[in-house]
Each structure stands twice: as structure tokens, then as C-alpha cells.
Amino acid sequence: MKTVQMFSHLFFKSTLLAASVSLVNSAAESEALVVPTAVRTAAAVVSTVAAKVNNVVINTNTTTVANVTTVAAKTVGTTLNSTVLIFARDTASAYSGFSGLNGYAIPYEVVIVPADGITLPTLNSSETVGNYGAFVVLSEVSYEYNGTEGFQSAISAAQWAELYQYQLTFGVRMVRLDVFPSGDSGTEAIGGCCATGIEQLISITNATAFPTAGLKTGAGMSTQGLWHYPANITEPEYTTEIAQFAATTGFDDVSTAAVINDFSGRQQMVFFTGFATDWSPTSNFLQHAWIHWVTRGVYTGFRRVNLNTQVDDMFLETDIYYPVNTTFTIAPSDLAQHVTWMPTVNAYLPPGSDWFMEVGHNGNGNIEDAEDINERKCGVGSIEYADQIDTPLEFVKPPGTGTNLWPETPATYPYTTSCTDLDDLLQWWQKPANLNAFAHVSHTFTHEDQDNATYFDVYRELTWNQAWLKQVGIANATKFSKDLF
Ligand SMILES: *[C@@H]1O[C@H](CO)[C@@H](O)[C@H](O)[C@H]1NC(C)=O
Ligand SMILES: *[C@@H]1O[C@H](CO)[C@@H](O)[C@H](O)[C@H]1NC(C)=O
Ligand SMILES: *[C@@H]1O[C@H](CO)[C@@H](O)[C@H](O)[C@H]1NC(C)=O
Ligand SMILES: *[C@@H]1O[C@H](CO)[C@@H](O)[C@H](O)[C@H]1NC(C)=O
Ligand SMILES: *[C@@H]1O[C@H](CO)[C@@H](O)[C@H](O)[C@H]1NC(C)=O
Ligand SMILES: *[C@@H]1O[C@H](CO)[C@@H](O)[C@H](O)[C@H]1NC(C)=O
Ligand SMILES: *[C@@H]1O[C@H](CO)[C@@H](O)[C@H](O)[C@H]1NC(C)=O
Ligand SMILES: *[C@@H]1O[C@H](CO)[C@@H](O)[C@H](O)[C@H]1NC(C)=O
Ligand SMILES: *[C@@H]1O[C@H](CO)[C@@H](O)[C@H](O)[C@H]1NC(C)=O
Ligand SMILES: *[C@@H]1O[C@H](CO)[C@@H](O)[C@H](O)[C@H]1NC(C)=O
């Protein structure tokens, strides 16, 4: 058996918690208390070993927990802290357990479990007061022990039993991410998937147990880069499917991707796929299922989603790919439907949502359009220079070098509203109902590449655009950073 080395684990807790409770005390070795800054680091890949299940060889680098006996106990706990306790092999992989909790501001603590094991934090200090409101375990914190032991969890069977017992006593749920299907989750493995380039979509099939997550069922998401184990439910009396893998090469039928088990009151949600919230949109989508289930939708904090849809280069003519060698300039009729469309999107977002598009404007496009209509009214005319050639990607401009592209004069913004107002696109933006439906930012006046630009040019790019935004009234929009001007 592996030796359980006392006090050797790294333990860290959420910034949201006062660092007041030290769950494992050791005079011999001081505990490493680390505040997790949600740094996205790729977790080291754990190599797979071949396991033979039902005469099928499946490559796996996670396990399942065996031989744990749970004592049936009635729920007696009366007071429970909502802190989520997360077990992970290392800090990088722990990110997939806590990044979503950070997003909601749900308090959590992470216990890093090395191959030689840990002592469990004190789960409860009395018969009735529990210190944790939920458990999350990543990859069963399993390691390859080489030889007869093979892949197994670094949490011992006795410790799993203690966690299970606590679950029953305090009515606390457990989430297990990246698990090899087995009887421990009422399932069996059908295989391991997928080889590079093979796509097997995953979708939520039954969201009844986590309604507050607001997830769509039947919406397939990519599993590319997420090693997973298509499963078959063998024990339906205590196992309910919540997510499914689609059929793909080597898997003719749909299979189970995640389940909820209810073992006479001890409840767990088990995902048969790796999670990588540092890069995978799929993991980021799926995590809302377990977060809402494990907390029963009752948690501190609230979910924040910042979605910035910024439309670039308003007023400028743009080369387009198709038809080749043609240009496009947006027209009022293209914009009008967005004014009515944005409220329809908000109408089906959760209460409190306020989504709107943000537009980056370039004043020179307004002058170009106006002078096409009446050149005489636009004085010096728009700012024009030859096509710029892209610098190499790693180009670093030597300070003090460069060639001015802008004309020597005038130094300050020269145009009058009798020029700017000729443009029907500007007239559209000047209508308050249109202007205030969007947020606005200053792009630059002409969109000059600034990799190799001079101070002379950049100063004009910024100040002329600001002067123009003020003159035409865009700077008076309700959603505009006026204080910066
Ligand atoms: C498990 O192995 C697969 C296949 O090599 C790999 O894609 C995945 O990242 C590994 N999982 C972990 C947690 O290391
Ligand atoms: C589980 O128990 C069986 C029967 O006692 C034993 O053969 C097996 O080695 C045990 N497995 C583990 C992982 O302890
Ligand atoms: C909950 O846990 C946190 C951190 O472990 C601790 O600071 C707080 O006092 C606990 N609250 C209760 C009610 O036990
Ligand atoms: C913690 O709860 C368990 C039941 O899950 C109980 O057996 C144990 O005595 C409790 N611990 C303390 C210190 O009261
Ligand atoms: C198993 O063997 C590999 C390769 O020698 C080694 O890297 C790993 O640390 C070993 N696992 C344990 C738990 O000792
Ligand atoms: C969906 O989940 C709910 C809640 O877990 C369960 O009661 C129901 O039986 C499930 N439906 C199906 C079709 O499995
Ligand atoms: C899934 O399990 C059921 C019940 O044990 C069995 O009848 C069926 O053949 C299994 N399907 C696969 C694909 O293994
Ligand atoms: C597009 O323009 C380029 C450069 O002027 C020219 O070489 C090319 O033949 C044109 N393509 C077509 C399909 O007109
Ligand atoms: C940068 O500008 C200078 C001066 O105009 C020019 O000589 C040089 O070729 C430019 N460098 C790049 C990488 O475009
Ligand atoms: C912008 O608002 C200021 C202050 O209300 C006002 O003086 C100015 O005339 C407005 N500008 C335009 C172009 O409407």
C-alpha cells in the first residue's frame, strides 16, 4: 500500500475567505497557505495506461474508487458551512475545479493531493456542525503506482469512506470530474476517446436536477482535446444520465458522458471527461451543471458574464474577400435592425442582464464620405496616404525613427459641421434613439498602423478623432467614457 505521509500536502484557500482557519496543523512542517490567483496554466498531461474492460483495451489516466464501504447514516448535521472543498493532483489542474467558483464568487478551498497521500482536512468539529458544503474531486486524484497497484486514488479507501459518511451526515453532494466509468458510478466504460482530429460532441441531456444553471439540453459541444470515456449505465436504479456523447468514429451509438448517482441518500455527479477550463469552452459550459447541482442553486455571490461585442472601424470603407477586389461601407439600413434586435436578445437573457454592442468610430471615414458629396465644404479634405505594408510580427520600432504620413498642416482638427453633416451615416448616428442604443469608443482618425508610426502621426490620430467625436455629438452618447475627454 502507499504510505500516507502526514502534513505533506499543499493547501490553499480562496481569496474570498479570511485566512482564519487552518485545517491541518503541524508543528513539524508549516503549512503552505497560498492564495490562488486564477492563473491559467496548462495542467501537465498524465500519461495513460491500458486497462482491459470487458475485453476492450481502454487507455486511461484516471481511475475509479473501489472497495469503499459507506455506513448508512441518517442526516443529523444541523449547521453547514457552504465552502466547497476541492481535491486536485496539482495547482494547474485545480483551476478546472475553482475557476467557475471564482466566476460566481463562491468560497472554496483547494487541497493538493500528492501521490503519497494526505491527511484530510477536519470535515466536522462536532456531530452537528459541518465545515464544508460540497466536495469536488478531479481525476479521482489518482496516480500510477507502478506494479500491482496500478492507477489508483491517492485518497485512501478509509478517507473516501469518511468523505462519504460526511456526505450522508450533512446532506452534502460530491462532484467527480474526469472519472473512469465503473460500478462506483453505476456504469461501465465502452472505450476511451478520441484520437487527434476525431470529434465526439458532448451535450447535456437532462438538466432537471440543476434548473438554476439555465443550460440548454441537446446542444452539442466539442470534446477535441478533452480525453474522455464513453460509458454505459449498468445500474439504472441509482444512476441517471445527465450528459451524452454523440456517435462518432468507433462509437456507433450515443453513450453516457455524465451521471448523477443516488446511493440511498449519498449523491454524486460524475463526469467521464477531463475538464480544462483554462482553454476549453466546453468545460466552461459544462461546469455550470455541477456548480448549480452541488450548491443546489444556493450560493453566495452571483454569476457575472461580461460579453463585449465591439464593432470596429465604423465609417471606414473596408476591402472584402468576396467578391474579390471590392469594398464595403456600412449603411444606415444595415445598422437599423440592430437597434431593434438588441432588446430582443436582452428579453431572453436572465433578469439583470444588459447587453449592448459597442462601436469604434473613425472620423476620417465620415470626411471621405462627405467630400464625395461636396468636396468644397470639406476644406483640406480627408487624410490620405499610400497603403501601409505590415511590419514583421515581432517588429520593435527604434524610438525616434519613422516617417510622418500625415500632412504638415493643419495641426488641429479643421472640419466644420457643414462638411460632416453631409454623410447620411453620420445623420443616422446623430439620432439619439440610434446613438444611445449602442456604446461608443474612439478608434483613431484614419486607422493608421501604429507599429512604425511617428509621435506626430499618433498624436493627430488620437486628438483629431476626439475633436470629431465631440463635434458631431457621438461623445454625448449615454454610453461613452466622457471623463476621458
Ligand atoms: C489523459 O490522457 C489523455 C490522452 O493522452 C490526455 O489527452 C489527457 O490530457 C490526460 N489527462 C490528464 C488529466 O492528464
Ligand atoms: C478490492 O477488494 C477486492 C476483494 O477483497 C480485492 O481483491 C481488491 O484488490 C481490492 N481492490 C483495491 C483497489 O483495494
Ligand atoms: C466557514 O469557513 C470559513 C473558512 O474556512 C470560516 O472562515 C468561517 O468562519 C466558517 N463559517 C462557519 C459558519 O463555520
Ligand atoms: C463528524 O461527523 C461524523 C459523522 O459523519 C461523526 O461520526 C464524528 O463524530 C463527527 N466528528 C466530531 C469531531 O464530532
Ligand atoms: C511510476 O513510474 C513512473 C515512471 O518511472 C514515475 O514517474 C512515477 O513517479 C511512478 N509513480 C509513483 C506513484 O511512484
Ligand atoms: C432527469 O433527471 C431527473 C432528476 O434527476 C430524474 O428524476 C429523471 O428521471 C431524469 N429523466 C430521465 C429521462 O432520465
Ligand atoms: C449497456 O448495458 C446494458 C445493460 O447491462 C447492455 O444490455 C448493453 O449491451 C450495454 N451496451 C453497450 C454498448 O455496452
Ligand atoms: C484583384 O486586384 C489585384 C491587385 O490589383 C489583381 O492583381 C488581381 O488580378 C485582382 N483580382 C481580380 C479577380 O480582379
Ligand atoms: C519603418 O519606418 C522607416 C522609416 O519610414 C522605414 O525605413 C522602415 O522600413 C519601416 N520599417 C518597417 C518594418 O516597416
Ligand atoms: C453635447 O452636450 C453638451 C453638454 O450638454 C452640449 O453643450 C453640446 O452642444 C452637445 N454637443 C452636441 C454635438 O450635441
From TrEMBL:
Domain of life, source organism: Eukaryota
Keyword terms: Signal
Domain (Agd3 CBM87): residue spans on this chain: 81-293
Keyword Signal listed: yes
Signal peptide segment: 1-26
Domain Agd3 deacetylase intervals: 307-482
Ranges in a coiled coil: none
A Pfam entry, by short name: CBM87_Agd3
Record-given protein name: Uncharacterized protein
Species: Cudoniella acicularis
Organism ancestry: Eukaryota, Fungi, Dikarya, Ascomycota, Pezizomycotina
